[in-house]
Hints:
This protein is mainly beta. The chain has helices spanning 87-95, 133-136, 263-290, and strands spanning 5-16, 23-27, 40-52, 65-70, 74-79, 104-109, 114-119, 125-129, 144-146, 149-150, 162-167, 180-181, 189-190, 193-198, 206-210, 219-221, 230-236, 249-259. It is elongated.
Amino acid sequence: MSLKLSYPERTNLYLTNLNNKSKIEVLIPDGVLKCNESNEDFYINVIQFNTFHNFYHVIQDYNNNFNIIIDNDTIINCSIPEGNINAYTIREYINNHNILKNHIYIVYDKLKNIFEFQKISDNSLQLEIINAHTLLGFSKTESIINLPCTSSKPVNVMAITNVFLHLEPGYDLNINDGNLDNHKGEIVQSNSIILSLPVNQMYNNMVVYNNEDGGNSFMFKCNRQETISSLCVSIRDQYYQLIPNFPDCHLILQFSKKLKDDKYGTILNKILDYITKISLIISYYFLGSGNL
Length: 292
């Protein structure tokens, strides 16, 4: 039995992030998004999302920080240059650093796309990765590494591979469809992701999701079933981190009010369906017997 829409059937909410923020926070006037809690449910569906792929993949304090620890005592704080860089930029930054150049020399293996961290001093050296794992070629589980060493994974300077839209807690709107992810660790946990979009366009092209066929892949039942007066959508990466200084983006959310299923009516409809099928079988049997 399909869900029946109530009136007004749908309300579209057109949203834009202001001032390159990573969160879209809005207040909704009372009564604009309201349903009858006794017999209606709210559903949310992402109709459209678009943004320019002109955001930096290396961002200050987001994914470019690491330390070099000398003789377990002296800590050298390092920040890979912000922007859209390549592996050679990282190599030149470390090899020309006014302090590191006296202790470390790195070689970039182009065929394997990895770094070789070589020592050129007699000091004890450790690499402490703060958040620059992908840029240096290490996994998220690696933090303190003794030098010399080699990258354990290929270097990845395109750090943001996916954009996820989350409904932030603490507002009227959340979903209760039991979505799960493992972005915070090995154990899957519940989330409020309403859209997952790969960054699969070249730089300065549009990254777009359009629900052109009216599909329900990103349609979810809301847990707020009377009045929705506030919501917040955050823009995060594949590791659940907010993407800083996210460029202008546009989002269309569609709210649908649907009549709740009447469980007694559903049972009666099933009984009626069974009776109809039995009647057809009996009719076929007697009609078939009469033709013999």
